[in-house]
Amino acid sequence: MTLNSIEYWVLAQVGLEIILVLLLVFFLLKIRSMSKLLQNFQEEEESVTSNFGKLSDQLALLDKKRLTLEETLELLGEKASTLREQSTSRRLAASEPYNAVSPNPGGSSLRLQVEDLHLQGLSLTEISRRLGLHPTEVKMALDLARLKAE
Fold it and tell me: What is the pTM of this model?
């Protein structure tokens, strides 16, 4: 082996070492970028986990509200059935015959009939039920009768 060939071997060795250093730098950069990706993935996972916790809390709150609404709906249903029963019983009571004296027959005005029934001691609701008037109309007729009396 001559000196020239040794120089070539040294140059080849240096070239290979440079290539190895470049490969090492390349792989170190790859590892660094992968670690950044992994770190980003972990941050996203933590974010998803915290969002999942918030969503589960909101779901529990919505479930409580749903139960409260169901209870309220049941109460409203019970009240509605009670009101229907009361309405039905009032209709039945309104359809029953009256024991008191009936209003004046034959062409007398409603105002006079209202006054007569009031003088007999009937309440506004009883008078309105007998004559088929709204209680406000009965009250207005009695107010007009008081005004005429003055």
Answer: 0.37
